[in-house]
């Protein structure tokens, strides 16, 4: 069934629709929801962790830094591993590592131990998340468009529910959210074991340096560079804002739940329609500039403005996530898992940097400056899109508005 603008509706319940998928796809998507919950899980309990472990805001923010630094480095080995042991075994290995390290995180006696366990968690999450996208794309009915939207749905739902779970369990103790995640990932492990059959092995094994070589393509390098700047802004909001809001776990969890709901709605429903009407690069550039304005108001407004702008940022982040994922998967001729690994290798370094530098910048200056820097990086991300438009045109041409080209189609993550 087609939408009003003439594009195929990926949510059509027909044979090619996103809602009619094999059990293996739903099992993988369900486990992906829990995996993405782990990213925002600690948001509402960051102040509680700092208090419980007698740590500073900058020390607790290292929970994100260690997690994403290991995630970024692990992107170089995910394809190497999965092309040798298969997608199913890689998913199970990643899930097992998350179960172990999330459980250990709940037993931490110091912030150093917790940061270390989060690093192990990041390794498991990298193995799972990077492979999950490839598995969903390969097994989903309805082609890559439905598969990517299903993956983005899992991302959005996980990002929305993570803070909520963290708040509900963290109100009793900051340790409980970690134990809860370990339990849910163990359930995901069982679902993958039961419903997902082993995927066909790739014709060619992925070498460790293949993701780096893939970044030699101008378009993919441009998408990764722009996403690097964007992700610095994204994770300044995610990791630093809870300290600025200074709310109880329940209130903070509610704010980031609303943020996650907007992220999910805009990534799955709004972004494809905006792309069909205006074209991907215009949508991406405009959304990045709006995000820059939003974080400036967040930093300089009062408490109510900070809450509203935190929630509103989810809309712009949702749009950006979808467009960046599509560009990363389609802008070059590299195999999708390799292109995704190279792209994620670059962008996750920003996710590791922002939680570390934002509290430091506040210590060196004032509470406003981290958001000024975040606004500047969002603008830099938009500037890369404008300056490198030619390099991104290979994919952008396919995503031009339908009134501009007859061949335009609308087709992430994480």
UniProtKB/TrEMBL annotation:
Localization per record: Cell membrane
Main location: membrane
Membrane topology reported for the UniProt record: Multi-pass membrane protein
Keywords associated with the record: Membrane, Transmembrane, Transmembrane helix
Domain Major facilitator superfamily (MFS) profile: 24-393
TM region(s), chain numbering: 24-42, 62-83, 90-109, 121-141, 148-170, 176-196, 217-240, 252-271, 283-302, 367-387
Domain of life: Bacteria
GO cellular component assignments: plasma membrane
Listed PANTHER family: MULTIDRUG EFFLUX PROTEIN YFMO
Protein's name in the database: MFS transporter
